[in-house]
Structures are given as C-alpha cells and as structure tokens.
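User: I'm putting together a teaching handout on how sequence relates to shape, and I'd like one worked example. Could you take HAD family phosphatase from Roseateles flavus, show the sequence you're using, and then write out its predicted structure as tokens right after it?

Assistant: Happy to. First the sequence, then the structure tokens directly below it.
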Amino acid sequence: MRVVFDFGGVLFRWHPPSFLARVWPHRCPDEAAGADAAREFFTQYSGDWGAFDQGLIGPEAVIERIAARTGWPQVEVRAVVDAVPDELQAVPGTVRLIEAAQAAGHRTHYLSNMPGIYADYLERHYPLDRWFEGGIFSSRVRQSKPGAEIFALMEAQLGVPPQDIVFLDDHPANIEAAAARGWQALLFTTPEAAEQTLRVRGLLG
C-alpha cells in the first residue's frame, strides 16, 4: 500500500488564524481576527496565493499582488510571507504515524500544495528523504490540489491502482477529489485520530 501525506496542517503545523495572530498582533489581536484576515490574505488558496502555490509567481509578486488587492502595506505582507517557515514545524505525532506506516510495510509519499521557497526550506531542514520515497510539490509541477492534474501525476509516480493509495489531507475538497479517483481518502484532523482510523482499516499493526 502507498500512504500519501499532505504537508500543511498534516505533517507540518499550518493554522493561519493563530499564525496571523502571532505575526500581526496589531491587526489580529486574537484567532477570530486572525481567521478573518486569513480569508482575505490567502483567499482560500486561490487567486494570488494559489498562483504562488503553483509556482506561477514568486514571493515578490505575491507580496505586491496581496498588498495591491487588500491595501495592506507591502512591508506587513512581506512579514507574513517571511514568517511562514517558522510556522511550518513538524508535528511529532504525524512523524510517528509515518514511521508506523513504514514499519507496517507501507511505502510513504507526499502530495503538497507548497510554494517553491517553502518547499526548498523543508527539504533543507527536515529529513524528507527518510520519511518519504518521493512526492510532489505543487510549485514544481505547476498544478495544485484539488485539480485532477496533480492527482494524475501522483498516480503516474506511484504506479499502483487507485485503490492501493491511502491519502491523508486536512482539506475536504482535496479528500473529495482523491476519493472521486478511487483513492482511500481520509480527512485528517489529528495524528491520533488518523492512526486510529488506519488501525481500524487494518493498515497498521
């Protein structure tokens, strides 16, 4: 079985409301304000940020576009873009889940919507080559979830029937897209809940 992990919100911490509350305390005094700002900043990962995810624009362009669209000063937008690597900290429970999947004989891979500068950062700072046989970053293939093209690319890389792919992602739209292709798609909430689901399905010892 191939077990495919998303990154942001699954293997790496990614919670925009609390992230913006930390980076922008003057604009986001609490997580509720952070959630409102996140909807405007990241536009549900479409628009400016979606192009950044797909590698169609770089950090300077995304900063300029967000500032122009929102009226927020470029220096403040840049502070958010620059702070993302500090937010992307590995989740210990998910690291253990990867190791448990490997111990059970499964082969592990990743499928992540990730701008190029952050993909480079994660490769430099984390043992991705130990955790995974391979994977796909959206910015390197100019496609992103939940689009069908990136799932097709993942299938080609794995070379197994769709029913032999287990996929963990925290976004319902991505889970729906994977399930529509016949993947075993599991909506991720916590590492503990994901481990329990995999055990119930007989995928972990």
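A couple of points you could highlight for students: Residues 16-87 form one domain. The chain has a mean pLDDT of 97.
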